[in-house]
Design brief:
This protein is α+β, with helices and mostly antiparallel strands. About 40% of the residues lie in helices and about 20% in strands. It contains 18 helices and 21 strands. Helix 8 packs parallel to helix 9 and helix 13 runs antiparallel to helix 15.
Length: about 525
């Protein structure tokens, strides 16, 4: 048994070490021998029965927790869930949905997807899957998704309630590959200025971004705002491909280096679509990893400027090491460095994940999000951009060229509580469901909607009244006025999203986004 465990471990390491020489100390008193003997002893001699798989998984997690904050272990199920948003597709029925009063409400069927092909429309309520009720039975969203998804080519029977139709409808849907997009929005935000917002860096991101660039150039884009706010990263290769679109041949994009991983450089290939127009990259404290690579490359190469707030500071390279059962270790093997030599990773204490998790809270408490003077930068962390020799700083994350403070007064405590209790989203969904045909008929053109649509006061008052039932009330009239003001904006954006798509949602929202508006001002006035 012991030998089997050791041989299996050696085989695993051999398979996963194609590009690195791994030294495995075997024999008497070796760490691996010790680990194997401990596992055997616990499994065979412990007073109570143990789950051997869980025992090994806990041991792996225990080892990784003593390392950096980003080395991790995931079960096969967790690995699949983590990879799915980045891998470009999954198998399913093809609907965007939300839960309203314990019922699945179809927000939009995917264009040319399985559900749209059989006649399912926005506003339909799916109440049963293969004769199993999913409405009004307190079933979790995860369990519902599990029933709706399945291998491509398999069929599922859906029972649907449709507004205005007395009897329930039944549809037989053949599951298919459903595309997962990573780009949130692409549109002309001002004459001559294009806007692209990318939510993550996945397998399809490069194609999505370059397609958007081509489309925006056709309608007059001369300058570009590339919004990476809240972008948590993704694949390094996708980041390198997208950064390539902005840079000249031979420009260094990023390099990685680690104790056992030799320096590897990623350089531009001179075939980018946007090597001349102005570029403004938007970042905030949730911009991380691959998004920091692109931000740092454009800044260090003096190709454009960064507007917003200091990024998260995730500059560790993980290599996935996959087991036969589909579970996976993501082991940190190197650091990311920007072209000027800045290490993107912020400082951390090995094994202290709580301190690392509290970093953003600490930055907020120290005033970094609201006051640029609260950011203390050491001269020892000073670097210079490669063409104009402007000063940039290391020490973790990408510091913007133009700082935009977080407006902490924008969303009141009352507004945050209404959102946290799902009161805002639930009332929004019910309103749109009741007025979908009317809204689509009245606003066939989005620009007309953007310019003239106002959220009914009755919808806002209904949310306020529902909040009162949950003991959510304003402390004074000023807070109530402020809450109503931004509730109206949020609701208008949600209506736009559900009648059109996410791009329209951001077209509404961006008109009050301080970071976006600072970029617009910079491109239109030069300051």
């Amino acid at each position: 048994m012991k030998k089997i465990i050791l041989f299996a471990l050696v085989a695993f390491l051999a398979v996963t070490s194609a590009s690195a020489q791994l030294r495995i100390k075997m024999g008497k008193n070796s760490p691996i021998e010790k680990l194997g003997r401990a596992e055997i002893a616990i499994t065979n001699l412990y007073v109570d029965s143990v789950d051997e798989n869980k025992l090994v998984e806990d041991a792996i997690r225990g080892m990784l927790e003593k390392l950096d904050p980003h080395s991790s272990y995931a079960t096969a199920k967790e690995t699949k869930a983590m990879n799915e948003p980045l891998n470009g597709s999954f198998d399913g029925i093809g609907v965007q949905f939300n839960m309203v009063d314990d019922t699945l409400l179809v927000i939009q069927p995917v264009v040319n997807g399985p559900s749209e092909k059989v006649g399912i429309i926005a506003g339909d309520r799916i109440v049963a899957v293969n004769d199993t009720a999913i409405s009004g039975v307190k079933m979790s969203k995860e369990e519902i998704m599990k029933r709706l998804r399945g291998p491509k080519g398999t069929t599922v029977n859906l029972t649907i309630v449709r507004r205005g139709i007395k009897d329930k409808l039944t549809f037989k849907v053949k599951r298919d590959k459903i595309p997962v997009t990573t780009m949130d929005a692409a549109y002309m935000i001002r004459p001559g200025i294009g806007y692209i917002r990318l939510g993550s860096f996945g397998l399809t991101s490069y194609k999505e971004v370059t397609s958007a660039m081509d489309s925006l150039k056709k309608v007059g884009m001369k300058d570009l705002i590339f919004d990476l706010e809240d972008n948590g990263g993704g694949y390094l290769q996708a980041a390198a491909q997208i950064a390539n679109e902005f840079l000249q041949k031979g420009d260094l994009i990023v390099y990685t280096s680690g104790r056992a991983a030799p320096r590897q450089e990623y350089k531009a290939q001179a075939n980018g679509r946007w090597r001349k127009g102005k570029v403004v990259v938007l970042t905030n404290e949730f911009t991380a990893s691959a998004a920091e690579i692109v931000s740092g490359a454009i800044q260090d190469q003096d190709r454009g400027v960064v507007v917003g707030r200091r990024t998260f500071g995730k500059g560790l390279v993980q290599r996935p090491l996959t087991f036969d059962d589909g579970s996976e270790i993501r082991l940190t093997i190197a650091h990311y460095y920007t072209p000027s030599g800045r290490c993107i990773q912020k400082p951390y204490k090995k094994g202290d994940r709580l301190d690392y998790a509290m970093d953003l809270d600490n930055r907020y408490k120290h005033g970094e999000f609201t006051n640029q003077d609260s950011i203390h930068l050491s001269d020892s962390l000073k670097y210079y951009t490669l063409r104009k020799h402007r000063v940039v700083y290391g020490g973790g994350g990408i510091m913007p060229d133009y700082f935009v403070p977080l407006d902490t007064t924008k969303y009141t405590k009352m507004h945050r509580q209404l959102a946290a209790k799902s009161i805002v989203i639930n009332h929004s969904l019910k309103f749109i469901d009741a007025h979908r045909k009317e809204l689509k008929s009245q606003y066939k053109d989005f620009n007309k909607f953007l310019a003239s649509y106002e959220v009914p006061s009755s919808l806002i008052e209904g949310i306020i009244a529902e909040g009162k039932k949950e003991k959510i009330e304003p402390k004074d009239e000023t807070e109530l006025t402020q809450t109503k003001k931004y509730l109206a904006l949020q609701l208008k954006a949600l209506v736009a999203r559900d009648i059109w798509d996410m791009s329209q949602y951001f077209q509404v929202w961006n008109e009050t986004n301080e970071i976006v508006q600072r970029a617009v001002k910079l491109l239109t006035t030069g300051k």
